[in-house]
Amino acid sequence: MANKLNIKKGDLVQVIAGARQSRGGDRGKQGKVLAVYPERNRVLVEGVNRVIKHKKATQTQAGGTAGGRETHEAPIHVSNVALVDPKDNKPTRVGYREESAERDGRTKTVRVRFSRRTGEEI
């Protein structure tokens, strides 16, 4: 069963755990969420947790060889990132509240995410 995560694809997040940038780590870096894997509790963040993959040299149709070392982002655990508040660009927790919206003469309750830091809607 997949877990419910507060972070969605396209959100701006900040790494809050791990080694500092001065020591070669990713803590403090901000990036956009490229993919969410709720079954593994992991998110893929742009520019964070970059790993080197070695690719075997193969011949292309043009006659050249393609191979070598490629860098890719690897998934990071969702507990190690926090959503960035759109108002002050600092990490915040996510809250949910129900608001009533009126559409076509009908009132409908909608769940919206908001920043616990400033109360602003995300």
TrEMBL record:
Residue ranges of the TM segments: none
Biased composition (Basic and acidic residues): 85-107
Region annotation (Disordered) ranges: 54-122
Domain KOW: 23-46
Residue ranges of every copy of the Large ribosomal subunit protein uL24 C-terminal domain listed in the record: 48-122
A GO MF label: rRNA binding
Assembly and interaction partners: Part of the 50S ribosomal subunit.
HAMAP family (UniProt xref): Ribosomal_uL24_B (MF_01326_B)
Protein name: Large ribosomal subunit protein uL24
Organism: Brevibacterium linens ATCC 9172
Primary gene name: rplX
